[in-house]
Amino acid sequence: MLITTTSTVEGKPVKEYLGLVTGESLVGTSVFRDVAGRRAAAYEEELRKAKQIAVHTMVKEATLRGANAVIGVTLAFGTLGQDGGMLMVSASGTGVVL
After folding, report:
1. From 93's CA, which of 43, 52, 65, 68 has a CA 20 to 30 Å away?
2. What is the pLDDT of residues 29-68, one digit of tens each?
3. Which residues pair with 80 in a beta bridge?
4. pTM score, two decimals?
5. Can you tell me the distance from the alpha carbon of 1 to that of 98, in angstroms, rounded to the nearest whole number?
């Protein structure tokens, strides 16, 4: 599955637009509360995993719709919960057939 942040793929015309596809990931931030330099690597690893899960979920939705590419992909980040104890990563793009 081709995934790109651009709205076109050079040399590959879009044959069909299948609509918005998304994927989300939530991770607890207990590891993030302790980030004081020495825990930065753990934070980065959890963030990396959350991004991978969100993108994987988006690709799975695109595949189920018959897409062979996702264009215009964006990632968004936010915190949830009363004390900001959850980190959310959202991936979205347009599922297409090239």
Report:
1. 43
2. 665 555 555 556 667 778 889 999 999 999 999 999 999 9
3. 86
4. 0.84
5. 11
